[in-house]
Amino acid sequence: MALIISTSNKHFLHMNVLLRHASGRSGEAESDIETILTEAAIGKRRIWVNSLLFAELRPSAFVAGRFAALAEFTRYLRSIATFVTADPNTMLRAARLRDVKWRRPAALRRPDEQPRFLSLSDAVQLASALWVKEAAGVADLEFLAFEDSGPEHLDAGGWLSLLRLQDYADGSPNDSDVLAALRLPRAEPVLHSRELPQSAAVG
Is 91 a member of any domain? Predict the structure, then answer.
């Protein structure tokens, strides 16, 4: 599947970007994420993060990688990012987004395929990004995330792609929350396209 490349210098970072980067698990995106964070530190970019991130930072689960200790990681983030704590209206918007039944087009659905739903974490982060875009007036905000598709993210309807929500919008309500989520630019934490390796000739 083709990469969705970042084109803005204002980013709302899904917490999976920072958690992977901190533990050295960001793969080929590592240098691009480092560029984003470094340029945020010197004012060339702006980044926002939901404060829910801190609830995911259990000391016993922290894996030292790029940062030797959890305290070092949190100090660094606080120095370069603006943290967003969702207010009641944003949380209500997240609840409405969680209630949306996301479906693939009928031609692509399996006969027994069930609707897909946003997780609580993803819905809160999307709603928070929309608050930054709308209430804080950051019109060119971009939502950066990795595509997490592990078993822990599956539900009865299957995995839901945050970056490709438009592919699951068949029959979704035509309301302001859904339209805002679909219009929010979403990309992977990647700044440059990468050449795919050439396949070796067989024979």
Answer: yes
Q: How far apart are CA 183 and CA 203, in angstroms?
A: 48
Confidence (pTM): 0.87
pLDDT at 109: 87
Residue 62 sits in a domain whose CATH number is 3.40.50.1010
Q: Tell me the average pLDDT across 150-162.
A: 60
State the pLDDT at residue 152.
44
CB-based contacts of 191, cutoff 8 Å, min separation 6: 5, 6, 32, 35, 36
> In whole angstroms, what is the distance from residue 40 CA to residue 10 CA?
9
Residue 128's CB is within 10 A of a number of other CB atoms, namely 26
Q: Quick one: CA torsion of 143, 161, 89, 91, rounded to 10 degrees? A: -110
Residue 141, domain extent: 10-150+160-187
Residue 131 near residue 86 (C-beta atoms within 8 A):
yes
Q: Which amino acid is at 114?
A: Q
- Whether residue 169 lies inside any domain: the answer is yes
In a domain, 22, yes or no: yes
Q: How many domains does the chain have?
A: 1
Burial class (CB within 10 angstroms; exposed 0-12, middle 13-18, buried 19+) of 156: exposed
